[in-house]
Amino acid sequence: MDFVCVSRVLFEKLNLNYEEGERWIVNLIRNSKLDAKIDSETGTVIMEPNQPNVYEQLIDHTKALQGRTYKLVGQLLEPSQAQPAR
């Protein structure tokens, strides 16, 4: 099933003509920040797989590790801070 067939059914359900429906899909792609393109010659939407960048994954894991390490150090220091000074 290609984009034209699906779009006709979808646009009929949404009560939109083809041009309005195409604009609706363009806005949907823009607002959802999808990595997609519309091929107007074939009337299809081409979507790239949404895989996070390796560098972004590394940064996210590093941030999570930093937070966990901070909590762990805080838990280790709590008993020594609770003891009265001699």
TrEMBL record:
Residues 1-52 form the PCI domain. It comes from the Eukaryota. GO terms for cellular component: eukaryotic translation initiation factor 3 complex. Keywords: Cytoplasm, Initiation factor, Protein biosynthesis. The keyword Protein biosynthesis applies. SUPFAM superfamilies: Winged helix' DNA-binding domain. GO terms for molecular function: translation initiation factor activity. This is PCI domain-containing protein. It comes from Gossypium aridum.
